[in-house]
Amino acid sequence: MDPKMIWANLAVEDLERTTKFYTELGFKPNGAPNNELTSFLAGEGRFVLHFFLKDVLKPAMKGEITDGHAANEIIFTLSAKSRDQVNAWAKEVTQAGGKLVSAPETFGNDYYGFVFADPDGHRFNVFYMEGF
């Protein structure tokens, strides 16, 4: 397989809330939101994150959609440039309405970071790796 690109399609309950949350975190909009989805670009590779209303995405999934508040579905990792940036992002996440699953901490060999959930329970791992 040699896909041209890859992106994520995630289910949300409230497009306005999702748009506000990711805009406050500084994610770049990927076009204007409409009545079915809001979309953002993340990172230097411009990874696309589509957030569809749950009822719109469900038929394409050919099955049930996990409640992000009750179970883990996937965890995205966001790479920070420094420990200070990790700490700043933790504050931004809580100010925007996200939930810190774990506070910034040292883990593994030379890693520093935290885990957060967006308002729909989608999880992100933020970390800084020494020497990376």
Automatic annotation (TrEMBL):
Q: Which InterPro entries match?
A: Glyas_Bleomycin-R_OHBP_Dase, Glyas_Fos-R_dOase_dom, VOC_core
One Pfam short name: Glyoxalase
Q: Which residues does UniProt assign to the signal peptide?
A: none
Q: Which residues form the VOC domain?
A: 4-129
Q: Which PROSITE patterns match?
A: VOC (PS51819)
- In terms of superkingdom, the source organism counts as Bacteria
Entry protein name: VOC domain-containing protein
